Amino acid sequence: MAPTVPLAVLALVALVAPGLGVAPGCDYPAHRWCSSPDVAVACQVGSRCPSLPRPAAAPVQLSLYYESLCPACREFLVLKLFPTWLLLPEEMLNITLVPYGNAQERNVSGKLDFQCQHGPEECLGNMMEACLMHEAKNFSTFFPVIFCLESGSSVTKNLEACLQIYAPEVDSGRISACVQGDTGVALMHHNAQVTEALEPPHQYVPWITINGKHTDELQAQAEASLLGLVCHLYQ
């Protein structure tokens, strides 16, 4: 007894090859047309094979250039960026945080020194968050801590409490050593270089790039509805 051809394949034949004609270059029987991606392409039926694996889309790349004590930066990070990150699957959005903003880097007697828009405490906050990222490494570990710092009463005084809540496995002593040593300076120098290399140059903070690009329109869309923008761009 001949094998029964599934109804779905019969429907596929009717849709793709009216009159039982075969797609040019297709040397496979109808019941094999959806057996693999290569066969589906050869028989021109890829869009009609729902069981075939689809290539993964690249995540939307968002970079936030910000200052730790900037009110508008804190508002965007706390009210827009963090909730969007929580709502979306990991594969849809890739975030890079660059705490530096409108700071200025100077070489004073052979040592790098930083001046920040909101004073020395902001420079400390920028370096603390850079060191936190360096020590925690995993974005899903350090981002909730940064959210905690930026949403709290003090960015620079709540590190211990935020670590206890969101990342107790991260050693606060290592972060302090980073801040007080050469590593913190090197991290801030890197952030300075990355920020100064922006094209077009940043004019304000928060400064948002999407897939490596910044336009006034993208900035406005990100600030108005970041979730909608990411969902629109994710292919």
TrEMBL record:
Keyword Oxidoreductase: yes
Sections of the chain in a coiled coil: none
Compartments, as annotated in UniProt: Secreted; Lysosome
GO annotation terms (biological process): immune system process
Top EC class of this enzyme: oxidoreductase
Family matches, as InterPro entries: Interferon-induced_GILT
GO MF annotation list: oxidoreductase activity, acting on a sulfur group of donors, disulfide as acceptor
EC number: 1.8.-.-
UniProt KW keywords: Disulfide bond, Glycoprotein, Immunity, Lysosome, Oxidoreductase, Redox-active center, Secreted, Signal
GO cellular component, one term: lysosome
Signal peptide positions on this chain: 1-21
Quaternary structure and interacting proteins, as annotated: Dimer; disulfide-linked.
Family as reported in the entry's similarity comment: Belongs to the GILT family.
Record's function text: Lysosomal thiol reductase that can reduce protein disulfide bonds. Facilitates the complete unfolding of proteins destined for lysosomal degradation. Plays an important role in antigen processing. Lysosomal thiol reductase that can reduce protein disulfide bonds. May facilitate the complete unfolding of proteins destined for lysosomal degradation. Plays an important role in antigen processing. Facilitates the generation of MHC class II-restricted epitodes from disulfide bond-containing antigen by the endocytic reduction of disulfide bonds. Also facilitates MHC class I-restricted recognition of exogenous antigens containing disulfide bonds by CD8+ T-cells or crosspresentation.
Name of the protein described by the UniProt record: Gamma-interferon-inducible lysosomal thiol reductase
Species this protein is from: Peucedramus taeniatus
Gene that encodes it: Ifi30
